[in-house]
Design brief:
Layout (H helix, E strand, L loop, with lengths): L3 H5 L34 H14 L3 H17 L1
Helix pairs in contact: 2-3
Length: 77
């Protein structure tokens, strides 16, 4: 699509009235949203989490999310 004529050929595109989603997979392209928040942690806890994350080669925020998610799944059981 290097010029206006090529782009214009797509301007009159119309969607079909009906589509068959019977073989579709729900949530296939879903990515959970991240919410920015401030969380105050004690120094010793933050240092521990950062050290653990460093050893596992992940960001410490990912480690915190993993730990909290594990806690949530145990709490639901």
């Amino acid at each position: 699509m290097k010029d206006i004529e090529q782009r214009a050929s797509f301007d009159d595109f119309e969607l079909d009235d009906n589509y068959d989603f019977s073989d579709g997979i729900r949530g296939r392209f879903y990515k959970p949203k991240k919410i920015r928040t401030t969380l105050q942690l004690d120094d010793d806890i933050l240092l521990f989490l950062k050290k653990q994350a460093s050893e596992k080669h992940v960001k410490y925020q990912v480690l915190v999310n993993t730990l909290l998610r594990d806690y949530m799944s145990e709490a639901v059981k």
